[in-house]
Structures are given as structure tokens and as C-alpha cells.
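Pinned message: reference record for Flagellar motor switch protein FliM
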Amino acid sequence: MSDMLSPATVDALLAAIDDKGQKPMKERKVQTYDFKRALRFSQDHIRILTRIHENYARLMTTYSSAQLRTIIQASVHSVEQMPFEEFVKSITDNSIISLFVASPLQGQMVLEVAPELAYAMLDRMLGGQGGQPDKLTHLTEIETMVIERIFSKILESFQDAWTSVLKLKTELKELEVNPHFLQIVSPNETVVTVKLNVTVGDVNGTIRLCLPHLVLEPIMPRLSAHHWLSNQKKDREPQESKALEKRLKKTNLGIIAELGHSEITIEEFLNLEDGDVIRLDQTVTDSLVVKVDNRVKFHGQPGTSKGRMAVQITEVKEEEEDKGHDG
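Predicted structure (C-alpha cells):
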């Protein structure tokens, strides 16, 4: 019993420990790390990539709406990194997959368009309402050419969105429908996938981009907040103005040249026959009114050009005069 510490001695030892400022060790937080899912992109990289593709979504919305002549909306749903093998396994059945390059970057990237979106775009380009086929079949040669044209235009917006980081030149290499034939990098290589929610008319679907780390590695220093903000302040306005001007120049406008007007009764209209003459409120020497999107913009004279009917512009209406001439 002589070897046992007395209660007073135990209290003295505990007091000495407290006096030295020693505290009980806190429980350490341990995070599981999967070596097969290597994280090559920092949170800063992901934020910059998200901003780039938010701009891409806006540009694609503007351009594709004019190209397909229907309302298109696009927004970034997520930007995440994963092994390439995981991306391939997540590709939905019947998706239209395109491989493309963006020089001067080395290597291929992937653009995956959900089947419902791809066929809606195809239907619009072929003059339809953007509906879905009753049964998904293999693309014909003509349909493949049309799809390639649509995807090439979508990739033009991609290169415009990346201008603040690097001037790219995108080129569509090939279309693929079987994801198992995609062998652009090794299965364990880290890739960034950008998922966009897209609406074409009444059809909803997704578009995904797959950007391998090996392809982006040479420009990783540029994907920093400091580099991004400095370039944005310096180049934002000129680039946005140039991109907007480029889109506006490709916008289609309806032009109407009016020979004149006339009023007749319903009875006269129902009794019209071949050879009848409708008298207009203008003479043959009067200038024609030329409307652009139903607004009076020019005056002109009728004639022919290379055997086809034409109008020669003789006067440009001033903006102030145009305000009261909405058709």
C-alpha cells in the first residue's frame, strides 16, 4: 500500500499539468482519399472554368437561337472533375458524341449532346417544329452532315468563350454514338466535365463537355483568379462588343417591298377571277416602301436584276422619321 499515490498527491500532479498549459488532444478529422480519383484541379480552377462556361452558355444561347429560329436557353448545371472512365460510363444511351480539338491545345475533347436535344436541333434545321421522332434510329448520311454543321457552330461559341484565357480554333473531328470507342486518354486520367441544361423550344436536355487534364495542363496557370480578373478588366468590353457584332451580322431579317395598298369588299374578293385588275393607291412612278422586320427603313424603285425581280434603294429613312411607321 506504500506504493500507492495519496489523493493529495494526485491533485497536485493534475494541478501541475494545468499550470504548464497542456490541454487534452482534440480529435483529428480524417478525410478519405481515393487514389483512383486523383484531384488535379483546385477549387480556384473549377471556379474559373465555371465562369468561362457560363459565358459559353450565354453565347451559345444567342447564336443558336438565331441559327435554329426558336427560343433556346442554356445554363451551367455543374462543373466537376472525375476519372475519364467514370465519364464514359455516365454517357446516356443514344447520345450524339463528337470529338473535337481546340488548337493550339494538344489532344482531343468531347462534346456530348443528349439525344432529345440533338434530334430537336436536327428537326429544326430540316424545317420541322423541333419535335422528337417516334423511334430513334441511326443517322442517315444527310442527317449526319446536318448534325456536324450544328455542332461545329456550337463549338464556335466555345472558342469565343475561351478568348479571355487563350485564343482557340475549334475543329470537329468525328461523330460517335458508341461511348466505348472513346479512347482520347487513359481510363484513370482526370477530366473536367461541364454539364449544361439546355432547352430548345419545348424540349429539355443536357449538353456535356469533357476536358481532359492533359489537354488543359499547359494553360493551368492561366486558370487562376488573378489572371482571369486582370484579363477581364482589360479585354471584356472589346471582346463582348466584337462577339455581339459578329452575332448581329449573322441575324436574319425579313424584308418586304410594298407595291401599294387597296381596299375591296368581301363580295368583291370572293368574285375575283383570272384577269381581274386590283387598283392600288400608288402610280407606277411612285417609290416603293421597303420594310425591314415590319418597320419602314427605305424607299426604292422596282426593277429586275439578272432576270429576277428586284428593288433599287433610292432613299434611306432617318431614325427620327421611322418612329411613326411601325407596320
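Pinned by admin. Summary line: The domain at 43-249 is CATH 3.40.1550.10 (Chemotaxis protein chec).
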